[in-house]
Design goal:
The structure holds two protein chains of two kinds.
Chain A (H helix, E strand, L loop, with lengths): L4 E9 L4 H14 L3 E6 L9 E9 L11 E6 L2 H7 L3 E10 L13 E5 L1 H8 L5 H13 L4 H11 L8 H16 L1
Parallel strand pairs in A: 1-4, 4-5, 5-6
Antiparallel strand pairs in A: 1-3, 2-3
Chain B lengths: L3 E4 H11 L4 E4 L7 H9 L6 E4 L3 H13 L4 E5 L1 H16 L4 E7 L15 H7 L8 E3 L4 H18 L2 E7 H5 L1 E4 L21 H4 L12 H21 L3 E4 L7 E4 L2 H16 L5 E5 L1 E3 L3 H5 L7 E6 L5 H9 L4 E6 L8 H15 L1
Parallel strand pairs in B: 2-3, 2-4, 4-5, 5-7, 6-7, 10-11, 10-13, 13-14
Antiparallel strand pairs in B: 1-8, 6-12, 9-11
Chain lengths: ~180, ~350
């Protein structure tokens, strides 16, 4: 990791894989012997409703697990962008699934990566990989972890019947990284 | 051992298995459902018992029965579910039955909400059961501490022949954190359970009966005095706490437990950045309350700021522990609202302003 502490909020529709995206970062951090906390919103969420989680990764011990101000926001839809945009610190980063956001006036004191992750996921052949495309954009934008480290996490957590998902997720991750650097 | 990333509820479930839990009885309630869910898969693999009861009341009475047979037993629930179990817990205390109860607290009163809360403090320390009863209780602040306490608690319950309650708020139940499941924990020399009702009266030459009913008031008083002696022993031996940033003998000392203590730690760091030193007493045991930490406070400490995710429940114990020696202040959020670091920082600054 290239900094002391990273605070992240991931938000989107229920079913977009928001929780898994955050967990993969925490799993990768654990593997790298870093401190990490993952917290889900656990309200009465339903498929199609809103879902979010917060992640902290740090070289130091983590005190408050609550993320009041984040370094990065990954918003997979417009309602999430509107809800959490103000939580991003000045100079922070917003990664947004631009295909699900109509004309939008972004804050000018943050770096915005508008990437149509849904479109990229569809091109790969599975819309469900939208979260991993966004994760790729996040890696490309922040350089927090290498794609190798994330791919190792895929291999660790996609086991049994989910093993067949590893390749397409690696592909989604790669496309996301490329999109961030484009 | 390497650390693994686990969800709080699942880590507590695995810790119970590692702590030697023979049987689990419970009934679902948010935000602790992953705990019984995990055990429903894994208890069988270890040849142990898992039962989803038809209600909380049934579950705690199954705990009573299994504990009476000498098993190491666990139940888990959340605040309103714990309230339903109070009758059974009182019976366990009265019958001197060991057992572990995990309470993943949510907002109240009544059904309340499902977000994190510490508003069970009175229910835990004063207990919702009848009689002169106490439950040994712990409130850890992170998953490593939680796992270690869960593992240790089965032996503690056996040692005192009394229920042990582990109280975390919903945040700790729901969060994922890296944890070493195999850190060694303190063990206790526990005498054989020759009191257990095991169906072996013929072999033993006498029948063991387990009751909480004593109709002769003198016998019941004597029984209560014996229980009281156990509580006194807990007060002597089980006070647990951590002191944070106390070397500078700060004028203001925070008192907070569980998730609130972690948020307070961030506030201490933020204040330090501004050149303001405040310390903290972090109670880990709720009963017994860590009186020793307060007795050892420097004379330079003038103000105790109690912080809770409830509206002044532990505040009473802080007043008792201070015994009039300090100015007592309070800040709390409730109903499932988790405070932010800045709110504590502002409260400390407001206190400093008033003091001038």
């Amino acid at each position: 990791m290239n900094k002391t502490t990273e605070k992240l909020i991931v938000a989107g529709f229920g079913g977009q894989g928001v929780m898994l995206l955050g967990q993969i970062i925490s799993y990768t951090a654990t593997e790298a012997s870093l401190n990490t906390v993952w917290i889900p919103s656990y309200g009465p969420e339903t498929r199609g409703g809103t879902a979010n989680c917060s992640v902290i990764v740090s070289k130091e011990s983590i005190n408050s697990p609550v993320v009041s101000e984040c370094d990065t926001l990954i918003a997979l839809n417009e309602p999430s962008l509107k809800k959490f945009e103000s939580k991003v610190r000045q100079g922070g980063t917003i990664i947004v699934n631009a295909g699900l956001v109509k004309e939008y006036s972004y804050r000018d004191d943050v770096t915005v990566y508008p990437v149509d992750a849904s479109k990229i996921a569809l091109e790969i052949g599975n819309l469900k990989t939208v979260n991993m495309v966004a994760l790729g954009v996040y890696l490309g934008a922040t350089g927090l972890f290498t794609s190798d480290a994330i791919e190792k996490t895929f291999e660790k957590i996609f086991t049994g019947s989910k093993e067949k998902l590893i390749d397409i997720n690696k592909q989604a991750l790669k496309s996301g990284i490329e999109a961030a650097q484009a | 051992m390497a650390k693994v990333l686990m969800k709080g509820n699942e880590a507590m479930a695995l810790a119970a298995i590692k702590g030697g839990c023979d049987a689990f009885f419970g009934y679902p309630i948010t935000p602790q459902n992953e705990l019984p869910e995990y055990l429903s898969y894994h208890m069988e693999q270890y040849g142990r018992v898992f039962v989803q009861a038809e209600s909380e009341v049934a579950a705690i009475n199954m705990v009573y029965g299994a504990a009476g047979s000498g098993a190491r037993v666990l139940t888990s629930s959340s605040s309103p579910g714990i309230a339903l179990k109070q009758e059974g817990i009182s019976y366990m205390v009265g019958s001197e039955l060991p057992g572990v109860i995990i309470n993943v607290m949510r907002g109240g009163p009544g059904l309340g909400g499902i977000q994190p809360s510490q508003a069970d403090y009175n229910q835990i320390t004063r207990t919702g059961g009848n009689g002169d009863m106490k439950v040994l209780s712990f409130a850890p602040e992170n998953l490593q501490e939680t796992v270690n306490i869960v593992k240790e608690s089965f032996a503690l319950a056996d040692y005192y022949r009394n229920p042990v309650m582990i109280a975390v708020d919903g945040l700790l139940g729901q969060m994922m954190e890296p944890v070493d499941m195999d850190q060694p924990v303190e063990t206790r020399e526990v005498p054989p359970k020759d009191w257990a009702a095991t169906g072996e009266a013929a072999k033993r030459g006498k029948r063991n009966t387990i009751v909480s009913l004593h109709l002769d008031p003198y016998k019941l008083e004597e029984h209560n005095l014996n229980l009281q002696a156990k509580y006194t022993k807990m007060i002597e031996n089980e006070q647990r706490y951590e002191l944070i940033n106390m070397d500078s003998e700060p004028e203001i000392v925070l008192v907070a437990y569980g998730s609130m203590a972690r948020i307070a730690r961030s506030a201490i760091d933020a204040l330090k950045d501004e050149g303001i030193e405040v310390g903290m007493i972090r109670p880990i045991s709720l009963f017994p309350y860590p009186q020793k930490a307060f007795d050892a406070l420097s004379e330079k400490t003038k103000t105790l700021l109690t912080l809770e995710m409830s509206l002044g429940q532990m505040l009473q114990d802080v007043r008792l522990a201070s015994n009039g020696k300090h100015r007592i202040e309070f800040f709390g959020r409730t109903g499932g609202v988790v405070p932010e670091t800045d709110e504590i920082v502002s409260k400390v600054k407001a206190i400093m302003k008033e003091a001038v």
